[in-house]
Amino acid sequence: MVCWFKDSLLILLLLPVLAGAVDRDLDDCTVGSTPTAEAPLDLDACTIENGDDISGILSGLASTYGDVYVRAPSRTANVVAAYTVFTVDDFYFYEDQSAANKLTIQHVTVDPNTCSGAACKGFFTLWSFSNFDNVLIGGSNLSITFVGNHPGLGNCSVHYRPAVQTGYSASAATICDINYGFVEFLVTDSSIANLADFRANIRFSQGYALYTYGNGSGVMYTASTPNTIRNLNVAGSFYATNGTSFHTGVQNAWADPDRYVVSDPFMRMYGWTGEVPGKTQGGLPMGCQDSSNDQVRISGFGGYYTISITGGVTLEYGGGGVGQRYTNSVGSAESPFIVRLKDWEVTGPGTLYQAGVRVKKTGESTLFKGDPHDEGPDEPRRFIRFIKLPDDYGSGPAGDSLTGCAVDNNYADGISNAVRMENSVSPTRYTRGWDVEFAGDWRTPTNGGTFLRGQLFYFSWDQYRAYNNTIRIAPGTVVDDTITLVDTSTVTGGGTFTNLRAGHPGAQWPTGYGTSFPTSGTYYNYGFYRTDLNKPYLCRAADCNAGTGWQEQTSVGRANTITDTNVSGSIAVGGYAGTTTISNVNFSGAARAVITIDTGSTAVITDLCVPDGSTITGTGTLTYEGSSESLPFNIPNSTANCAITADGRPNAPSGGGVN
Amino acid sequence: MNFIARVGWSTRVLVSWTAPTTNTDGSALTGDDAIAEYRVAWYLDDYFVNSARYSASPAQVSDLAPGDYDFYVTAIAVDGEESDPWFVGSKTVS
Questions:
Q1: What average pLDDT does the segment A470-494 reach?
Q2: Chain B closest CA to A456's CA: distance in Å?
Q3: Can you name the residues that pair with B87 across neighbouring β-strands?
């Protein structure tokens, strides 16, 4: 009797699901006239109960009418769907009437541990769109949610990933790879798709939430490159270990800067108490950052041979950033790509996936391509604005590791390598400059504007050409005292930094940074400073301007403009660096060669203050106080500008109002 | 209906302010210290949303989603120096 009771209870519990588990098709709908984009088939015209499989309706529309135009039902509905490949030109599936209409779509339930071969397909991809023209899923209300068969926390048992995904072969994987490429967009018939527009939510997907496949690597896309998607738009909450890491084949990508959130599915499912909660993922504590077990490897919006990336992303719970590889442009001066960071220090990044915009690892795959042929002007092509949002879970665990984790969590967490550039392979491949702003909360920096730990910029690349890089730290932003602003310690012979304005007079740096970071008052402004006095270091900065509380630069080199700067070392103009303008610079210390101009470079110099007997040397071209001079050049004694003082900055506006 | 274009919000806000006349050290706003532009930042429900640069007051901020906004403005000199932010006011966009 006890057993009977248990079985009955189980049956009762399953009844709501089983009762609704009906495979629906077009016979369950009153279609009327041929559905169009303007008059789609409203699923209210179909008999659909919670739990039903709607795959037959969609397949029926595709086979009967050639295209699919569907509007979600005007109610809350939870349905399932099977893995389906749609080869239609146009697929519209959206909710545009009311945010109160909640449609949830999830996989047909299959046990990933017992399925094999084709039966496993539904685990990895829900819908596949092949050689389409336009795919629109979701809509303005974002009230459609796709739910994956998330395995939950537990050991990832080895499971075989079937070869259902174009571009990948069957390979050993773990069930943590379930839902790998939840919705995929494929273009393989040498055509150019117009649009893949996904404005819905994806919850509890491992691997890529969205996946694209088209033109392979090695080709910098143009508007006419075949096997590409002209426009990829995304918006919604993506609780997936990889958000929209589109693989290949996207020409232009846009993420809604206000409504695109990539979050760790485990954190979203179980929350965070400030400590390792005892739950495991892949046999390791949650947040251990074991990439082999797909732990917290968020990738927000990564390009790959992409012409442009615009919009923005919110990254939650640490993880990786936005590895926009081989991308021609990111954001614009008028509208930078927004990267909002929230609770990213809870888990901390592993050594592979730091939060922020980063390129790590080595080799050609790390290159950011400037343009198809590395030609064109050197103006910045990457405009990024980092915004730190208030955290829900505080600053996370103390230190840089979690007890019980493997070695992959012992890296400084925070916004490490916000911009990381490495090119140890080929000096003939280039990138273009960066324009990056760290924007905290102007009003209450302690309430969300603090960037913690790590190094913001890491460069060990492209030592042969100079590009314009700009870093701005907005008023109110707080940079934690353990941050290394720019790390060039691995660079031998100097990095390449131009137009880098590292500090902002409104930037507030906390006290106690360390003896290597001298302080003066509340604000500090540095182009660069030497992190290791034993290593060769050239500060290649233009506009190493003075502000309130500036300090001496050690050395400055290969810059476009150097002005209003104290230099205790020297200025190395460098070779083949174009024209460098040097003005109003004060060299302290003993007489020496204060400036070196190498072959192929020109220096236009005015208003120097130098120790008597100092010289300008090199093999380049010199214009000194309006006259062409040969090198070496003995600098006339001068006492002008020996006391470089900073002007104030503008007073704040006042008055006004909002209408 | 058009799903291809980004959904646009119809509500716009006009933000105005009075320009500063001096630097923090009392010097005149001339030459490199002259005001080049202004930056207006807006917050939605206490969250920083975005900022944009404008040449002069007033500034029209558009494409705002519904919510309660706070607006701040800074002055930016030719040499890039930026003032402290000034709270201009709040506005509910519906």
A1: 49
A2: 21
A3: B72
Beta-carbon separation of A38 and B1 below 8 A: yes
Residue A367 tokens, joined: 């290159």
Amino acid at A88: V
Q: What is the rounded CA–CA span in Å between residue A127 and residue A548?
A: 57
Tell if the CB–CB gap between A647 and B48 is shorter than 8 Å: no
The residues facing B91 across adjacent strands are B69
Give CA separation, A281 vs A51, A132, A207, A296, in Å: 29, 37, 14, 10
Task: Say yes or no for a CB contact (<8 Å) between B77 and A649.
Answer: yes
pLDDT in tens, A203-241: 877 677 888 888 876 677 888 999 999 999 999 988 877
Residue type, position A148, single letter: G
Flag whether residue A652 sits within 8 Å of chain B, measured between CB atoms.
yes
Give yes or no for a contact between A450 and A480, defined as CB atoms under 8 angstroms apart: yes
Residue A442 distance to chain B (closest CA, Å): 7
Taking the CA of residue A61 and the nearest CA in chain B, the distance in Å comes to 20
pTM: 0.69
Strands (E), A266-350: 280-281, 284-285, 308-316, 329-330, 337-342
Q: Cβ distance A536 to A570 under 8 Å?
A: no
Contacts of B34 in chain A (CB under 8 A): none
Give residues 2 to 61 of B whose Cβ lies within 8 Å of A.
3-4, 6-7, 13-27, 29, 32-33, 35, 38, 41, 43, 46-52, 57-58
pLDDT digits (tens, 9 = 90+) for A104-132: 998 876 555 566 666 666 667 789 999 99
C-alpha A393/C-alpha A343 separation (Å) is 6
Contacts of A653 in chain B (CB under 8 A): 17-20, 38, 57, 73-75, 83, 86, 88
DSSP three-state, residue A194: strand
Question: A197: which 2 tokens?
Answer: 């527009």
Nearest-CA neighbor of B70 among B93, B41, B43?
Answer: B43
The three-state secondary structure class of A553 is strand
Q: Do A659 and B13 touch (CB under 8 A)?
A: yes
Identify residue B36 by its one-letter amino acid code: A
